[in-house]
Amino acid sequence: MREGYKTYYITKGPIRGSCKHQHRTIYWAYHCLRNDFHAAQKEGILSDRRVYAVENRHERELYDHEINELDHLRRVTLKKRVLQQ
């Protein structure tokens, strides 16, 4: 992990495991989550990964403001997809 970043984000699930990345922002964790979703879809399965925060080496659920940011990213991505169609 880079010095100066006490919190980073990971994606992981009980079946597909962890992405093994240390994402500095929710944006990059969501991007990784979407990539795994598409990869799992190509394999004919569903991705079970979720975004978690790691703070001072302790994994935790996302705080409300982080959940809101993740939800905002989902809505923006969906809106872009709808507009392209």
Q: How does this model look, in words?
A:
This protein has 85 residues and is an alpha+beta fold. Helices cover 45% and strands 21% of the residues. It has two helices and four strands, in the order ββαββα. A four-stranded antiparallel sheet has the order 2-1-3-4, with helices on one face. The longest helix has 21 residues, at 64-84. It is globular. The mean pLDDT is 91.
Distance between the termini: 39 Å
Spans of at least 5 consecutive residues whose pLDDT stays below 50 are none
Helicity level: 40-55%
Write down the overall geometry.
globular
Radius of gyration: 14 Å
In this structure, how is the largest beta sheet organized? 4 strands, antiparallel
